[in-house]
Specification:
Bound molecules: ligand 3AM
CATH topology: Cyclic Phosphodiesterase, Chain: A
Structural class: alpha+beta
Strand order of the largest sheet: 3-1-9-10
Radius of gyration: 16 Å
CATH class: Alpha Beta
Number of domains: 1
Helix content: 25-40%
Largest sheet: 4 strands, antiparallel
Order of helices and strands: EHEEHEEEHEEEE
Number of strands: 10
CATH superfamily: Cyclic phosphodiesterase
Distance between the termini: 28 Å
Number of helices: 3
Shape: globular
């Protein structure tokens, strides 16, 4: 099964992000992420065997992560897959630390972090036709995060669907 570690937005923020996705879609086209799929990916783990997935779920369920607040104040786009996202003007240092700490621990499970620059972001649109985000409303949202989620990704006809397999306890 295909797994990743993520933060899931609090409900009020999820709704705000959904409204932004609607505005962005009107401007940029493409496929809007369903509100219940909005997330911040911290570590993409790829294909994981069932037994290992169970061990990972237990590991997530038994731990807690330090709490933090992520300020969302920028629109962005990844050209090649046509992604429009919201995130920070600069990568949030607490999230970068969390990302690095998780990958260190994941090494104990035999996962290797492929080198690449971590840009914390929430994908709002995929396969966008226009990547111009100028003119979209300016942002100043705060995401208070407390818990880590282990999420399974299913590929379906109309895009990916997600199911949360485990959550860490509140810090
Ligand atoms: O958080 P977002 O939605 O931007 O694009 C995939 C998605 O990112 C990404 O992991 C998240 C959950 O599916 N993803 C998919 N395949 C990947 C890969 N091979 C990947 N990230 C890194 N390497």
């Amino acid at each position: 099964m295909r797994l990743f570690l993520a933060l899931e937005p609090p409900e009020t923020l999820r709704q705000q992000l959904g409204e932004l996705a609607e505005l962005a879609q009107a401007r940029c086209g493409g496929r809007r992420m369903p509100d219940d799929s909005l997330h911040l990916t911290l570590a993409f783990l790829g294909e994981v065997a069932e037994e290992r997935a169970a061990a990972l779920a237990a590991w997530v369920g038994e731990r807690s992560i330090p709490a933090g607040e992520w300020r969302l104040d920028a629109w962005g786009a990844f050209r090649r897959p046509g992604i429009v996202w919201v995130g920070g003007q600069t990568p949030d240092p607490e999230l970068v630390r969390l990302h690095e700490a998780l990958w260190k621990e994941l090494a104990a499970f035999g996962f290797n972090h492929r080198p690449g620059h971590f840009v914390p972001h929430v994908t709002l649109l995929r396969r966008a036709h226009h990547l111009e985000t100028r003119g979209l409303p300016s942002l100043d949202l705060v995401w208070p995060w407390r818990r880590l989620s282990l999420v399974r990704s299913f590929t379906e006809k109309d895009g990916a669907r997600y199911a949360t397999l485990a959550r860490s306890s509140s810090a």
